[in-house]
Amino acid sequence: MPSVNSVSSLLQLSVAHIVTRIENFDTPANSTANISVMGELGNIFHQLPSSLLEQVIIAYAANGIDRPEAFVLEYLISKHLRFARFHVYSEGYLTVFPRFEHLISLILRFSEAGNNCLRELGIHCKNLRILDVYRCRSITDRGVQLLCSNFLKPNALCNTLQHLIMFSTSVTKRGARFAIDNLTALKNLYHENTFEVVVEIVQTSRSLMQDSFSYVHFLLHDFTYLQGSLGQVVQLIPSLTCVAICVTNGLTDTELLSLLSLKNLRTFRLVPNSEVEEQNKEFEITFKGGVVPLLRKFGHFLESLDISFFTVIDIWTVFKCCPNLIRFWFKSHCDSVTVLPESEIALYRNNEEKRLILKNLDGLFCGYNTSPEILHFLLSFPALKEIHINSCDALTDEFLQSAISCHKFKNIKNFNLSFCNYVTKRGIDALMTYHNCVEEIRIQSCDNLTHENVYEWHLQAKKENWKFNILYKDSEFDKYYCSNKKDYCLKYV
Question: Which of these, 132, 121, 126, 74, lies nearest to 101 by C-alpha position?
Answer without folding.
Answer: 126
